[in-house]
Amino acid sequence: MAFKNPDTAILNEKELYIFDMDGTIYLGYNVFPFAIRFINNLRAAGKRVLFFTNNASHTSDFYVQKLSKLGFSPTREEIMTSGDVTIEFLRRHRDGKSVYLVGTDELVESFKDAGINMLTGDEEKADIVVTSFDTTMTYKKMDDACRLVRGGAEYLSTHPDFNCPTETGFIPDSGAIAAFVTASTGKTPTYFGKPYKETVEMISEATGVSVDKMCIFGDRLYTDIALGKKHGVTAVLVYSGETTPEDVEAATVAEKPDYAFPSLDEVDQVMFG
Questions:
Q1: Is the residue at 77 inside a domain?
Q2: Residue 211 lies in a domain
Q3: How confident is the model over 10-41, as pLDDT tens digits?
Q4: Which of 17, 104, 118, 121 is nearest to 59 (CA)?
Q5: Are residues 268 and 201 in the same domain?
Q6: Which domain holds residue 102?
Q7: Among residues 92, 137, 249, 260, which is most buried (max CB within 10 A)?
Q8: Same domain, residue pair 214 and 243
Q9: Are 237 and 201 in the same domain?
Q10: 110 and 177: one domain?
């Protein structure tokens, strides 16, 4: 049976609208023009927006610049990444612990700037290993991560996404890198980002908005939509990225969206005419 949307009036009742980025408002640097229109309409209606990406290969400051160039005009407070959530967890719950990070130079610098005790990977032991979406991956990085995890390091991952959508197709993401480490060591990481509770808690704390007043838009069932379904946030799927209608039909209750639309264009039409 084809998925049918329930009454869409509830979408207009929310206070905070959370947007995934890759596959939802753009692909790479190809912006979806209707996404800009929809977000502008939300702001004009007095609604709040937050851009959240599991892509931790870049920092929030990078996304401020990128989204500004694409026409979204965000403030720094309107952007959050899975890297931000991971850093906040380490600061609150693992303060002073030594960390080896498999990630881009940009992500490494953001960890250092936050005061995290960073290692190079050449050490014999580490308290914690964190892996992320690393477009500068080398075999040595993976070897060091696996060796340190086997040596007893706690294993964390910024986010579970297996693939990142781009203009030219999918590329391996953080979840694929974590799968490599797990296959080699037998250790499964603790994940952050979407769909995990630390993300919802950080969003609520940063914005002062309760989960029942939030709505999330995304293109991926097991991260964007699962975040909403697991934690009481209204979840809206768009088919402009990874997921197909057939995927929705086969989805479990925990990953089946509250609403599904071809793109944000149709959501804009439903909410604003």
A1: no
A2: yes
A3: 999 999 999 999 899 998 889 999 999 999 99
A4: 104
A5: yes
A6: 95-191
A7: 260
A8: yes
A9: yes
A10: yes
| Closest C-alpha to 221, from 183, 249, 197 | 249
Q: Please tell me the pTM assigned to this model.
A: 0.90
The verdict on 180 and 221 lying in the same domain is no
Task: Read off the pLDDT of residues 197-232 as tens digits, 9 standing for 90 and up.
Answer: 999 999 999 999 999 999 999 999 999 999 999 999
Read off the CATH number of the domain in which 184 is found: 3.40.50.1000
d(CA 46, CA 177): 40
CB 202 within 8 A of CB 208: no
